[in-house]
Automatic annotation (TrEMBL):
The keyword Ligase applies. GO terms for biological process: amide biosynthetic process; glutamyl-tRNA aminoacylation. Belongs to the class-I aminoacyl-tRNA synthetase family. Glutamate--tRNA ligase type 2 subfamily. Catalyzes the attachment of glutamate to tRNA(Glu) in a two-step reaction: glutamate is first activated by ATP to form Glu-AMP and then transferred to the acceptor end of tRNA(Glu). Keywords: Aminoacyl-tRNA synthetase, ATP-binding, Cytoplasm, Ligase, Nucleotide-binding, Protein biosynthesis. It is found in: Cytoplasm. This is Glutamate--tRNA ligase. Its main location: cytoplasm. Residues 421-483 form the tRNA synthetases class I (E and Q) anti-codon binding domain.
Amino acid sequence: ELLIVKPKQERTGLPPLENAEQGNVVTRFPPEPNGYPHIGHAKASIIDEEYAKMYGGKLILRFDDTNPEKERLEYYAAIKVGLDWLDVKYDLIKNTSDDMEVIYKKGKELIDSSYAYVCTCDKETISKNRREMISCKCRSGDLDQNNIRWNKMFDKFKPGEAIVRFRGDMSSENTVMRDPTLFRIIDEPHPIHKDKYRVWPNYDFAVAIEDSIDGITHAFRTKEYELRTELYYTLLDKLNMRKPKMLEFSRLEFEGMPVSKRVLKPLVEEGKVSGFDDPRLPTLEGLRRRGIVPEAIRKFVLSLGFTKSDTMPPFETLESFNRKIIDPISVRLFIVFDPVKLTITNNNLTEIEISNHPQNEMGKRQVMIDGNFYISGDDANLLKIGDEVRLLELYNIRITKIGSEVEGEVIGTGYKSGISKIQWISRKNPVNIEVLTSNVLFINDQFNENSLEVKQAITEQYYLELNVGAQIQFVRFGYCRKDSANQAIYTHK
Ligand code: ATP
Ligand code: MG
Ligand code: MG
C-alpha cells in the first residue's frame, strides 16, 4: 500500500511562498539584542524556521546589532537561550556588526554615486524639513564636500553633528522616502566591537545590505515596517544588489500583556514585576515559568497563520494548546487551601498508594497516614454532622463533630456514588507552598495591581520529590508548574 505524505505546507498551515524553489529558500530571524525574547519573537522565528524547513532551505540567526546604545551581551545570550527552548534550529549564526566594512563600502558607494549625502543640519531642522518636504542645502553639496564630511564622521564630528542621508524624494507621499538616515554617529562602546566603530548604519540600511549579502530569498517582518519596504528595495536597486522578497505579517501580542520594552522595562525597574522572567510577562522566560511549553507555542503560532490583520488572540487560545500537551504528563496531587483539621477517630491505615496519573504510566506514590488530615476550608464549611463523604482515593467517612476542627469516622472503603468527594493532606508530613496566579498586567492601559495573586496552600509530601519545572495538576484547582521547593506557578485550568 502507498503511504501518502502530505506536503509540509499543508501540515504547517502556512501558505506557500512566492518564487520559492525547493532547496533554495533562505530565511532569517534578525533580532536586535536589546531585550529579552518574547511571544512576538517566537512567532517570527517559528515562521522563519517553518518556511526554511518547508522548502528544505536554511534559516540564519542574525543579530541586528548596530545600535550600541541599547545592546548588551546579556541579550544576545538570552535570545539564543530562548530559541533553544523553542526548539527553533538555525543553520547559521552571525552579527550584522561583523559586516561593518562591507556596510561602509556600500555607504561610500552611494555617496560616490550621489545617491547619498552627509547632512549637518540639526535634528529639529531635519524633522521640520521632512514634514514640510523641503530640501536643505546639504542635499546639493558636491561630491568633495560629501567625501570630506563622510571622513570627518569617523573622527572629527560629534554625535548628532552629521548623518548620512539617502537622496530619496523629499516630496514623496511615503515619509520614509524623504531622505532617510543611513548612518549616524554613536559614541558608545559596542558589546562586541567596543570602540572600534562610531559610525553606525541605521536599521533600514543594515537590513537591506545584510539580507542581500546573506543570500536571503524571503525576508519577513511585522506590518508596521510596511512603509519601509519601498526604501529597502530602492536602496538595493541603487546599489545593484540582489533583492530578497520582503513580506509582512501581523504583530503578535496578547490583550493586556504588552511585549514592548518601553512598557515592560519600567515595570521591572519600578519593581512592579519581579524581573523579565516574571510569570505575568509575555517573555519566553515568563511563559516558561508559567508552565507554557514550547510545543504549545509553536502550535499556537502556526494556528494563527501568516496573517496581516492585527488581531489580539486571547491568551486562552495558547492555554488550550498547552493543556492538551501537559495534561498527559502532569502529576495529579492533592492541594488544600485555608486548611481545617479533620481527625478520623477509627482510622487503622498507615500508608496508602495513589496513582500519579489516572490513565498514564506515571508511577504511584506512597502516602503516610495516621487519621489526622487537613481539608480545605471551603469543603469543611459545607459539612454537617451526619454527612457521609468520601476522602478521595481513601475511604468513606461520616462526620461526627463540627467546630473549629472536624471529626469523623470511617464507614467503608468501597467507592460510593452520590456522595461528595473531598481531597485531603495527611498531617504526618504536609508541605506548605505558595501558589502564584498571574492575571492580565494591564486593564484599560492601567497597571493591574492585582495582576499577581499569592495563595498559601498545603500539598503532599510527594511535591518535594518532583523536579523544579515539573507539571502538576492540583486536583480541582488546575495545572501548575513547580517553580521551587515552596512555590508553584499556576498555569491554567
Ligand atoms: P522592538 O520594538 O522590540 O525593537 P522590533 O520589531 O525591532 O521590536 P526585534 O527585537 O528586532 O523587533 O525583532 C526581531 C524580529 O522579530 C523582527 O523581524 C520583528 O519583525 C519580529 N517581531 C518583533 N516583535 C514582534 C511581534 N510582537 N510579533 C511578531 N513579530 C515580531
Ligand atoms: Mg525587539
Ligand atoms: Mg528594534
